[in-house]
Amino acid sequence: xxxxxxxxxxxxxxxxxxxxxxxxxxxxxxxxxxxxxxxxxxxxxxxxxxxxxxxxxxxxxxxxxxxxxxxxxxxxxxxxxxxxxxxxxxxxxxxxxxxxxxxxxxxxxxxxxxxxxxxxxxxxxxxxxxxxxxxxxxxxxxxxxxxxxxxxxxxxxxxxxxxxxxxx
Amino acid sequence: xxxxxxxxxxxxxxxxxxxxxxxxxxxxxxxxxxxxxxxxxxxxxxxxxxxxxxxxxxxxxxxxxxxxxxxxxxxxxxxxxxxxxxxxxxxxxxxxxxxxxxxxxxxxxxxxxxxxxxxxxxxxxxxxxxxxxxxxxxxxxxxxxxxxxxxxxxxxxxxxxxxxxxxx
Amino acid sequence: xxxxxxxxxxxxxxxxxxxxxxxxxxxxxxxxxxxxxxxxxxxxxxxxxxxxxxxxxxxxxxxxxxxxxxxxxxxxxxxxxxxxxxxxxxxxxxxxxxxxxxxxxxxxxxxxxxxxxxxxxxxxxxxxxxxxxxxxxxxxxxxxxxxxxxxxxxxxxxxxxxxxxxxxxxxxxxxxxxxxxxxxxxxxxxxxxxxxxxxxxxxxxxxxxxxxxxxxxxxxxxxxxxxxxxxxxxxxxxxxxxxxxxxxxxxxxxxxxxxxxxxxxxxxxxxxxxxxxxxxxxxxxxxxxxxxxxxxxxxxxxxxxxxxxxxxxxxxxxxxxxxxxxxxxxxxxxxxxxxxxxxxxxxxxxxxxxxxxxxxxxxxxxxxxxxxxxxxxxxxxxxxxxxxxxxxxxxxxxxxxxxxxxxxxxxxxxxxxxxxxxxxxxxxxxxxxxxxxxxxxxxxxxxxxxxxxxxxxxxxxxxxxxxxxxxxxxxxxxxxxxxxxxxxxxxxxxxxxxxxxxxxxxxxxx
Amino acid sequence: xxxxxxxxxxxxxxxxxxxxxxxxxxxxxxxxxxxxxxxxxxxxxxxxxxxxxxxxxxxxxxxxxxxxxxxxxxxxxxxxxxxxxxxxxxxxxxxxxxxxxxxxxxxxxxxxxxxxxxxxxxxxxxxxxxxxxxxxxxxxxxxxxxxxxxxxxxxxxxxxxxxxxxxxxxxxxxxxxxxxxxxxxxxxxxxxxxxxxxxxxxxxxxxxxxxxxxxxxxxxxxxxxxxxxxxxxxxxxxxxxxxxxxxxxxxxxxxxxxxxxxxxxxxxxxxxxxxxxxxxxxxxxxxxxxxxxxxxxxxxxxxxxxxxxxxxxxxxxxxxxxxxxxxxxxxxxxxxxxxxxxxxxxxxxxxxxxxxxxxxxxxxxxxxxxxxxxxxxxxxxxxxxxxxxxxxxxxxxxxxxxxxxxxxxxxxxxxxxxxxxxxxxxxxxxxxxxxxxxxxxxxxxxxxxxxxxxxxxxxxxxxxxxxxxxxxxxxxxxxxxxxxxxxxxxxxxxxxxxxxxxxxxxxxxx
Lengths: 168, 168, 510, 510
Known about the structure:
heterotetramer, A: 168 residues, mainly beta, CATH 2.40.50.100, 2 domains, four-stranded antiparallel β-sheet, 10% helix, elongated, C: 510 residues, Rossmann fold, Dna Ligase, domain 1, D-amino Acid Aminotransferase, Chain A, domain 1, 5 domains, eight-stranded antiparallel β-sheet, five-stranded parallel β-sheet, 24% strand, globular
């Protein structure tokens, strides 16, 4: 099975399992580990005696994880067949970069554009405020505003689509 | 609905509810409170501005609670029709006091009795060890040993029945 | 312990977050009952359920709740509050609020409205300090009226200069000007920022002090004319004029300089009849010349490092002073012991330009043990609202010396585990590894100078750690598959699922 | 900081629970790598996942794992451990273990086997102390050989007397004898208890000191002949000879007495060439006469109160001494500052005769903020095993004086919330409310004298609190009913269920 971490895709294979003792290979390297869950989402892993901890939070479908381990944070995805297909599609989608997504919960302070406006790379499309700080979101390439899904004063969630763009 | 706390049985009635603002009566006394769950099993209650916190753990059927509030611990039971019936039965059962139950997880150290033995009030029937301490369990009245369900060296759980008695 | 009859038996804390909880702690220890106020967005915030009483004062936006003077005064009167503690931020330096408290017979825990006005306006503060013989940075003693005047004054003083909002604070309304061409933009921007942030657009100009240290002295004054200083805090590690890490003692100043600056700090406070806890901020240049920068007429975010080094509870002292008691310490009793460092833990994405990262805290495992103090308002299951400051806790360590304190920081940062929201913990870890910090050789240019180093860069030895992250995720995924394929779960706890899974013997095929 | 070349770079901690974690903390701060050992019952214990490395040494029962000398030595050799820290309990006072470490070239962090033998056997210790001119309780200097001899000696010394196991400790193998009729049972029981607990059935007799205080002095000795004392700990609050609460300084002793006892403690340690951290326990009678009781040749459970009052990290000092460094403090540098109190938090049912209460910890909200230290190994989701000690954490407060420290205890006990297992927190709360404790007027008879007061009695004002408990349970029950009747839950978190429930408008009919 493939597991994606950051930009790396690793091939993971479970070789055997006896209670908490698990043998698996990652990109051909074999690991014999003693793994246990300390509490929900927190794992203790002993790899030849070396003690590692990992805390993870799951996405709703249990396929995407945010993992903290030893002062590093990782985004990990389990790639099953469905995810593989979606990933291929997303690769294409992403290149178009045709929407502006709120990276955090916040409040829309201003939208200095309207539908049909033509923007140049670097122009501000929307300003969001969260925790006493205002953040301007700029477009990454020349484009036209296709649709605006929010209004000034709206509260928005993380990952909410705010504006659809038409790339020029 | 009846709610039992310790030996007291209180009549509780929900009068109204608007979001977090709840009006209910307990034994005729009316409470208008602002209640919210802080995290699983932890409640914050504002009663006319006075701030109370209660932490509870649920039994498997969500009808029995252990509640901590302001340096006191309570056993609370929600009494629906089924529980009412069981409670009546249990009252009868309890009077007989015809079994010895392990109050904690532990290990059986010794069983100085055998089936058929006649014990006097205060005689030790079984000794359990947990956390480096040995606890002797004595019978509360004269009785005969009817059945022994565990053996020396066994690990036992909390609330496990260990010995059935025949009361004299 | 004292014959003094306490007037203060019930305190309203006009604040939220960690500082509200911290103030309540000292109140509870003094058997003073605590009243919280909260906005509609803060019903589940810790200060609400930690208080003895709690009352909602308005909607989420600060101006409708935590800055709503009349609503707060109403609550205080209705519930027979003896005194109000303003914390820091919000109304803590608002002299109108002080007046309103006075009018209603409520004790304001802090200096008088007059003192606050004298020191709150930076131009007025400069004038008072010059009169009291406290050194100030060369600059204008009055507000600027036009772009032309700004250009003229800047040219007179010589570049670089700092343009500052008279009512400013927290890094807002401040601009560094390197040459004449930058004056106009800086002047107009600072004015508009100041107007929107502080309701006043007066700005003035000061000489820019090169390679400056930001060093502040804690002072305490009572209502009987006594003023002492509680030594210094080194606050030079700042990003965009926001403090990130503070320590005490400062590795930069000498005993002689400490004595001199302390004396000037006391003079400064006496000049304005200061009562309560306050802070005199100084800029110290590389030649150890020092200049009065401003006075904060309230408790500082970084007050705990002073508490740890001196063994004094500043909030208790504030309350005792407000209650009319004389200072319980004399200057000669004030002896620094060991070394303390504070880090500000914020819900922000350090890899994405420190964008705020509000959200639901899933795990919140705080470091404990010897020499650690956490002043926090976070708890597991708490959803950090979007309306307020991203700081969720302060991590303070104390140790016998600076080296041991830094060693301790490494240990406690390793123990601190927050999931669900992004935090700056990894970024702080990188700061304390920079050799200039370890050697105590830094000034306010630290973050600028080391920006590159502080970026998160994947190292060559990452693969091992990545593989651990992969293993944890992969195993978690498998357990959840297992669970969905069986339905004999009478207990749904994830750890139990894990244990059941652990019991499977033999080879498992996926 | 020092030219000394460290020999100790990797330490195996031959212990579990809070003390293993506490020792690892200091190791990590010294950049020393840590090796945990664990029994099969302890895979999820905090010391395992907190360490850099962890190895299983045997089955759950201590004798098969934490007391299994050869398995531990094997791990130490195989993984190139430089030194072993024994903590307290388990092998910490086992001279055979010290010898085995020596034979394998592993540094034992503690005194030599010879010193341990001299002080470990109480009869031998008495002899050494008498020789060193340290006062001891009148009694026999040799073991008793028969019931008859025991009766004779008791009659000679005069009742009441204490009968003690020579190898005893932790309250085991001790009997108070009031008159001749009690001698026989006491002698036989103490002998058998001693044999099963310590593998030796030697018992001896001492005069019983009336209204005694149990006061101990921390000492530090290095390998260069230096010994200093670190002042006292008052440990008189005991139940069945088990300490419950300790404080420093003692409210009972005077500066003059502290000086005298400290000097004797140093003499006692020097008499046995003591190296490392150790404790001289004294009994002090109501006239402030003091007697050597025993020496503990290891770290004590209650060592943190000394650390807080003196600002010294005792584990770091132990490691530095074991590494051959001279003491880093001189006697004249040792100055007590403020007051510290420790409470032992145990998983036990205080209302059911302190029966141990192992189980799964569901919530573990620890107090934080100014003046609090928690030394714990508990975490949410951890299942406390049945095999070991019921102590799960130590709560330590520090404040400028004793009154403030007690005030602080009230505050922090209120913050400490553990659910899932029963604890003695409410019982400890009652202890600190007893006027004799508040006034510092107590001796080892405290728990006996106040047993009645310390019982949990429902008060008249209980109904209000009961009603709060009823409301919380009732509402929780209703939410769960709601949930079962709807199936549009895409998120199963209870707090989310609550929030959905909170959104219902209007009257709800059950």
